[in-house]
Amino acid sequence: MAKGVKTGGRKQGTPNKGKLSLMELIEAKYPCYNPVLSLVEIANDLEVDVKIRVHCHKEVARYTHAPLKASEKEKESNINVIFSRKE
Fold first, then answer.
1. Phi, psi of 5 (to 5 degrees)
2. d(Cα 56, Cα 52) in Å, to the nearest integer?
3. What is the pTM (predicted TM-score) of this model?
4. Annotated domain spans of the chain
5. 87 residues of the chain, pLDDT tens digit each
């Protein structure tokens, strides 16, 4: 990049050829597939192991919430989370 100005190559946000072909293959086999929505479904399925559900929630949170700053982490360090399974 020359002095903060883009001078060539792909436009910003344009996927590379490899990623584009992968996206096309996924769309052909699974129309309207959305990996984040799939994770949400798994996270809310009570029959799935709780460790997997927690992992899915953490992954979805990466796309829906900004990460906490160091000062925010210190303030919220006293939070205890308890999971219980409804039978």
1. -115, 130
2. 6
3. 0.56
4. 33-74
5. 557 776 777 777 776 777 778 888 999 999 999 999 999 999 999 999 999 999 999 999 998 888 877 775 555 566 677 777 776
